[in-house]
Amino acid sequence: MSDRFKRRDFLKGAMATGAATAVPFSLVELSWGAGGTPESAEAQNFTFAYISDSHLTHIKGQNFNENFDGGLKRAVTELNFMSPKPDFVIYGGDLSQLGKKEELDHGLEIMSGIRNLDVKWVIGEHDYYLDLGKYWQDNISDLYYSFDHKGVHFVVLNSILTYDEWTHDRWPTAMERMQQMARLDNPEGSPFMVGREQREWLAKDLEQVSKSTPIVVLSHSPLYQVYKPWNFWTDDAAEVQQILQQFDQVNVLHGHVHQIMYNQIGNITFQAMMATAWPWPYPVSYAQHDNSVPKTTVFMNRADPHNSRDGTGWGSVDLITGRETIHHTLWRNTNRTIAFSEEKGHPVDSKYQKPKNQIPPQDHY
Ligand SMILES: [Fe+2]
Ligand SMILES: [Fe+2]
What we know:
By secondary structure, this protein is α/β, with parallel strands linked by helices. It has one domain (about 5-355): 4-Layer Sandwich (Purple Acid Phosphatase, chain A, domain 2). The chain has helices spanning about 5-20, 40-45, 65-80, 100-110, 125-130, 135-140, 165-170, 175-180, 195-205, 235-245, 285; strands at about 25-30, 45-50, 60, 65, 90, 120, 145-150, 150-155, 215-220, 250-255, 260-265, 270, 315-320, 325-330, 335-340, 345-350. The protein is globular, with a radius of gyration of 19 Å. The site of one fe (ii) ion (FE2) has 7 residues, from loops.
């Protein structure tokens, strides 16, 4: 048995430990792909954890929505029990519900319970549209940046920008703007975008990176277009993809959609991570509109609309020969494994991809 597969077995063991307690964060293992020697593969492997979409909601004074607090606290607690420890933690955005100082401070306080691990932050629209990221930048993180870790180039993007006119000229107060952008199905909303400034920065950042270097892009919204009325959408996604397509192995991990979703566009594999707060339904299960849920994505069987934890959970991602295999562990539902199929050229659900095995989408949302 190769070292790689031993490591995968080990990771599965670690996952099983986590599964017993069903925590809503994701473990990500990156493995050096084809062409590496066993020694270099050993050197390049690492794991990071991923937590997203906690939506901490301030009520009054010191009171916050305890259900949402509970999701994030549980993730942090479990993360501290991980053995071996991950190399670092990604937070995928929407730490707060309305971008309030109280909410972001509360999030930082809970996240500070993570022991001895660096956190890499991705901003979500719920963190941004009150003060346009000022408190975030002053106290948490830059809005976009890149870093290298053990031979992998990571890029963090702020993908939830929109038109200047919508942002600056339309709303009487900052909170009104925030509340408009916080709504899911809002005709007064505006589509997300990365924007010219970041696209130019991205192209320049990647000039220094060899085409064979694995790239991991961390965004909040999907860097492709799923469903515009809910802003499961990035308006300039095609232009961002064009910059990324020159690389052999590109993996985009995003939050925002609060559900398992996956797609393949050219060399780019897209995977959504679950939320610690609540699941969103798939667009097609809610609205009788045309939608573009990826044809590779199989609907989760979210059977119980009264169970707010059905559809939240955690998972792990292995990058084997540059392709993702994601093991999703759900709190109140069937676990899922999504692996890239060389034969089909896109990710495939190991159990449910075949139509005869699929559970029909729920339509009672
Ligand atoms: Fe969210
Ligand atoms: Fe979001």
